[in-house]
Amino acid sequence: MEMKLTPELKALKEEYDFLHKKIGELEWEIATIFYGRKGILSSEINDLEDRLDNYRHNISMLIGKIRNEVKIANESK
Fold first, then answer.
1. In angstroms, what is the C-alpha Rg of the chain?
2. What is the separation, in whole angstroms, between the first and last Cα of the chain?
3. DSSP H or E stretch at residue 75
4. Cα–Cα dist 41/3, whole Å
5. CA distances from residue 47 to 15, 30, 59, 75 in whole angstroms, order as listed
6. Counting Cβ atoms within 10 Å, is residue 47 exposed (0-12), middle (13-18) or buried (19+)?
7. What mean pLDDT is predicted for residues 6-34?
8. CA 40 to CA 32: how far, in whole Å?
9. Which of 11, 26, 30, 62 shows a CA-CA span of 20 to 30 A to 52?
């Protein structure tokens, strides 16, 4: 049974999907960074890992917002 999301939860779901996709793209880029290359700068990896950490931090904060919104939606029923 699929539940209809509130407008707030729908917006949070879109943000979650975006962040989840970006995390996956960065993880793939880090995993394959040497493919077809003889060498890379350590700053390239550091930049990617910093961006990945930032997205992970943002998604963990978003999960907290989602839980709060679910609580609010459940209380209003």
1. 17
2. 17
3. helix 42-75
4. 48
5. 23, 10, 18, 42
6. exposed
7. 96
8. 12
9. 11
